[in-house]
Amino acid sequence: MKLHQLFLLFVLLTFTKPSLSKTVDIDVLVEDGYFPIIINAQKKQGFAPEFIKILNGAQQEFNFVLKSLPVKRLALSVEKNNFDVLFLMALQWIPQSAQENIKKTEFYTITKNELYTLKENTNEQAYFDDITSLTKVGVLGYSYQFAGFNTDAEFLSEAHQVSLTIDEFNVVKMLLLKRAEVGVLNNIAYQYFKNQNTFNMDLLYKSNVPDAVYKTHFLVNSKSNKITNNKMDEILSLPTAQIQLQKLLDKYGVSSNYTSP
After folding, report:
1. Which stretch of DSSP H or E encloses residue 155?
2. What is the pLDDT of residues 165-223, one digit of tens each?
3. Which of 186, 132, 185, 178 is nearest to 156 (CA)?
4. Strands 162-165 and 136-139
5. Cβ of 5: how many Cβ atoms within 10 Å?
6. Which one, of 167, 202, 161, 162, lies nearest residue 185 by Cα?
7. In a 10 Å sphere around its CB, with 0-12 CB exposed, 13-18 middle and 19+ buried, how is residue 67 labelled?
8. Between helices 47-58 and 229-236, what is the axis angle to 10°?
9. Would you list the DSSP string of 64-124?
């Protein structure tokens, strides 16, 4: 090796330091009962685990760790600022006291709470014009527009004749068993049940007017200081992530503001 080459090597070794940066773990909380966003939390199957896997595969700066919690524990974590990111939730689902520290991504998906009944009950949209006197079934902890977004189980039962169950699988089950006249189903859950032939969804008749429509964002805790909402959007916009995310959104029938490159 010539003298000038040895000098260049010395300079490189002197001024080039090995990277000390480490991958930052980001806790992403999702509601355990938010069916079918988490299809099977134990087997890590479903929309949320697949989504997080794509984000981790698209970059190396962050390691997103999906943690599913029951609705009450999730709400407590949010109130105590004990989280980094919430997986695709509507800001209005978060307690007002906790919203101050939350920043949302520009990226969002669209979810609808839709009203269903058995086709044998009616084939007329007028059936849904006034559902006050009809028995209803929904999911414990979820808020519904027809009830003023009040989630109190006793209020829903006494004032609106709503029976509450643990997930939307049981909402459909109760409709088919004629345990309620109207059921509230998330549009993604409906599509999943239909695609998987979980139930004969053709037996149900849907209102053309949803109970409520939400934009669900990644909600970032500004107090965690690990990641920002802008950084989340940057990762979501990576070409390596976009192609796979579009396929995932199509697979689960999820509408969003996302457009592939």
Report:
1. helix 153-160
2. 988 899 999 999 999 999 999 998 898 888 888 899 999 999 999 999 999 999 999 99
3. 132
4. parallel
5. 9
6. 167
7. middle
8. 90
9. EEEEEE-HHHHHHHHHTT--SEEEEE-GGGS-GGGGGGEEEEEEEEEEEEEEEEETTT-S-
For residues 114 and 207, is the Cβ–Cβ distance under 8 A? yes
Taking only the tens place, the pLDDT of each residue in 234-248 is 999 999 899 999 999
Map residue 253 onto helix, strand or coil: coil
Kindly report the number of other CB atoms within 10 A of residue 197's CB atom. 8
Q: What are 181's strand-pairing partners?
A: none
CA dist., res. 98 & res. 111, Å (int): 22
pTM higher than 0.85:
no
Contacts 24+ apart (CB under 8 A), 91-96: 91/217, 91/219, 92/149, 92/214, 93/143, 93/214, 94/219
- CB atoms near residue 208 (< 10 Å): 8
Express each pLDDT in 24-74 by its tens digit. 999 999 988 666 677 666 667 789 999 999 999 999 999 999 999 887 888
The pLDDT > 70 percentage for the chain reads 87
Closest CA to 139 of 172, 188, 101: 172
**Is 7 a residue whose pLDDT tops 80?**
no
Going by C-alpha positions, the residue among 63, 43, 67 that lies closest to residue 53 is 63
Average pLDDT for the chain: 88
